[in-house]
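Long-time lurker. I teach an intro course on protein structure, and each term I like to show students one example going from raw sequence to a predicted 3D structure in C-alpha cell notation. This year I'd like something fresh instead of my usual example. Would anyone be willing to generate the C-alpha cells for the chain below so I can use it in lecture? Attribution to the forum is fine with me.
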Amino acid sequence: MVGVEDGRVEIYLEDAIIENFLLDGALLYLALSAARQEIVWWRLLLGGLAGAVFAVAFPLLPFPPWLSYACKLLAGGLLVFIALKRQKHRGRYALTLALFYGLSFCFGGGLVAILEGFQVPYYTAVGGGTLTKIPVGGLLAAVAVFVGLTKWGIVKIYERKRACAHIVCCEVAHGQTRCKLKGLVDTGNRATCDGKAVCFVPPDLLYRLFGMSPPCRFITVSTVSGERRIGLFAVEEIWVFIGREKIRLEGAYLSASVHMAGKEYQLLLPPLE
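-- Reply from a regular --
Happy to contribute to a lecture. Here you go:
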C-alpha cells in the first residue's frame, strides 16, 4: 500500500511487510504443491519472511535496472531454496523454481490487468514490482482468490493425470467387426459371469457390434444406487495394449453403460491381474 504526496511515493512499512510475506508465502505454497513437494511449514514461513524483508529493503539499494532484475531473479531462487526441503534431485528444485517464477508472473500480470481494467492508480518500481493504493484487505482478497483457483487447477490436473495413467489402447473383435478404442482399467470393476470378465461400453458401441440382437445372459450387479439387472453380450476377444505387451481377454462379456457418455474412454475394463 502506498501514499502519494508532492509527487513522492510513500510506502507504508507495516503494510509492505504483511503483503509481501503473505504473497510470497502463498506463491511458495502453490509452487511446492504443483511440484508435489513435501511442505515444511517453518521453511515456508521463513521463505515468506525472507521475501518480505527483501521487498522492503530492495527499493533502498541504488542498483541500475538491469542489476535490479537480476537481483529479483536470484532472490526468487533463494526463497525457493529456503522453503524447499533438502533433497538430492536438482531437477525437483528447478521445477519448483520454474513454477514459482511462472506463478509470480501470472499473479503480477493478472493484478496489473485488473488495476488497468478498473483504472486503479499504481506505480511500477525500479527493477520490477507494482505499488498500489488499494487497501491491504483488497490485495489479500486477490491473493486468496488466486490461491483458491490455482489450487483447484492443480488438483484437477493431477486427477486427470492419474486417470490417464490407467487409460490404455484396446481392440474389440466380434465377427467381422473390429473396433479400436480407449479403455480404462478399473480396479473397482469386479463384475463376472461364468468366471469371465464383464466389461462396459456405451450403448452406441454395443449396437455397432451386435445390432438388434438380444442379450445372451442376464446378471444382477450391485451399484451405488442399489442392485440392477443388466444384459450381457458375449464378445469373441478383447485385446489390451500396454506398451509392447498385448493382453487378450477371450470370451469376455460386454454390457451397456449410459454413464460413459462424454468420457475419454469407451471401454471399462476389469483389473488386469
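Some talking points for your students: The chain is about 45% helix and 25% strand. The helical segments are 13-34, 41-57, 65-83, 90-117, 136-165, 203-210.
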